[in-house]
Design a protein that fits this description.
The chain has 2 helices and 2 strands, in the order αββα. It has 80 residues and is mainly alpha-helical. The protein has one domain. The chain has a two-stranded antiparallel ribbon with strand order 1-2. α1 packs across α2. The longest helix is centred in the C-terminal third of the chain and has 29 residues. The chain is elongated, with a radius of gyration of 18 Å. The chain starts with a helix and ends in an 8-residue tail after the last helix.
């Protein structure tokens, strides 16, 4: 049960993170990023990896929220 629920949420979140990663880094060079006014100092691969897991966590939270909201919705009352 839990493994099915996890994969129902994690797989779309993974695909969303992949698309977000491709879209963001098509226009952003990781070596030009700065933090607190100075260069970030990370390698490209480190920035790609950290960004991917951040994007995945955001997409996972979004998917979990949508699943939670869909399961707690009660149908409207039918007129008698």
């Amino acid at each position: 049960m839990w493994s099915n629920l996890l994969m129902t949420v994690a797989w779309p979140a993974f695909l969303g993170a992949c698309l977000l990663e491709a879209a963001v880094f098509a226009v952003v060079d990781p070596l030009e990023l700065s933090w607190a006014g100075g260069p970030l100092g990370w390698s490209r691969q480190a920035v790609y990896t950290a960004a991917f897991f951040l994007f995945w966590a955001i997409c996972l939270a979004s998917s979990l929220t949508a699943l939670f909201m869909a399961r707690t919705v009660t149908p409207p009352l039918q007129p008698e």
